[in-house]
Write a structure and sequence with these properties.
The protein has helices at residues 2-13, 16-23, 30-37, 41-50, 53-56, 69-73, 79-85, 87-95, 105-111; strands spanning 62-67, 98-100, 113-114, 126-129, 132-135, 138-147, 150-155. It is an alpha+beta fold. The relative contact order is 0.22.
């Protein structure tokens, strides 16, 4: 099983060149890459509403586990609206998706499991499971999208602190 997971992640690690074409250029900040991608409109709206654009455009480096629009659509009805209406709760959820420093897929592969502290303060459970990288149960669908101030790992589910 470990061999399958390693093969899957090594294959995924070879995709960053395609990711740059899909999600933006490495010379752009995390926010720039998210804006240009077109699949993070909800995330960008939330980052703006929480007042985090300047922070995530800053020097970093940051590792962002970025939920797609489809990931936000999977939240229970009314959850996104409630978060957008409560800036502090929104900020807590968004900063739970951010780790100070740059963590690449190869770092998780080497350790098989890491529990980095998020900017929000709680630790994320990041591990290799079922042939893919999981972040608190969300699956990394595109690893290692590099930006000038860090890296984005695209995830298929919004992860919530304390869950």
């Amino acid at each position: 099983m470990r061999k399958i997971a390693m093969v899957a992640l090594v294959g995924a690690a070879l995709v960053p060149a395609q990711a740059s074409a899909q999600y933006g250029e490495a010379g752009k900040t995390i926010v720039d890459v998210a804006v240009e991608a077109g699949s993070f409109e909800t995330l960008v709206t939330a980052v703006k509403a929480a007042g985090l654009v300047e922070t995530l455009s800053g020097e970093g480096p940051f590792t962002v586990f970025a939920p797609t629009d489809a990931a936000f659509a999977k939240l229970p009805e009314g959850t996104l609206e409630a978060l957008l209406a409560d800036r502090e709760a929104l900020k807590a959820v968004l900063t739970y998706h951010v780790i100070p420093g740059k963590v690449m897929a190869k770092d998780v592969l080497a350790a098989e499991q890491v529990s980095p502290a998020t900017v929000q303060g709680e630790a994320l459970d990041v591990r290799v499971a079922d042939g893919s990288v999981k972040v608190d149960g969300a699956t990394v669908v595109q690893p290692d999208v590099e930006a000038s101030n860090g890296v984005i790992h695209v995830i298929d589910t919004v992860v919530l602190p304390g869950s």
